[in-house]
Structures are given as structure tokens and as C-alpha cells.
């Protein structure tokens, strides 16, 4: 289900977006479509990307395994 947010105002490099309940979300201005203005309504679609999640998890596990090979274990000596 798309999320509709209106642009309330701009504060520096952030846009303050407001949902239909009045909740505010700070959003980077440079990620918005060019030429948007306060008062406009934007539609967002937020979806899970399960394949990208699996890939990131696999990459993270590989990095952790590589780091574990170099870790002698035991207490940290300062």
C-alpha cells in the first residue's frame, strides 16, 4: 500500500514530511523529485527486498568468518 506524505516545509537539507495522522518524518531533500515544493503530496512505496537481504546476510557472514580467522580470542590487552 503506498504511503502518502505531504511536504510541510524545508529545514536546511531536510524536508519535513507529514502523514495523514500528523506524524512528521525528516527526509533528505536531495532524494526527493526535483522541483518539489511545500504543500505537495508525495507517494512512497516501501517494499521488502528479500533477495537483497539474503545477499547482505551472506556477505556479512563471510566478513565475520574472515575476521574470526584473524582473532586470537581471549581477553583484550590494553
TrEMBL record:
Highest rank taxon of the organism: Bacteria
Full protein name: DUF3006 domain-containing protein
Organism: Singulisphaera acidiphila (strain ATCC BAA-1392 / DSM 18658 / VKM B-2454 / MOB10)
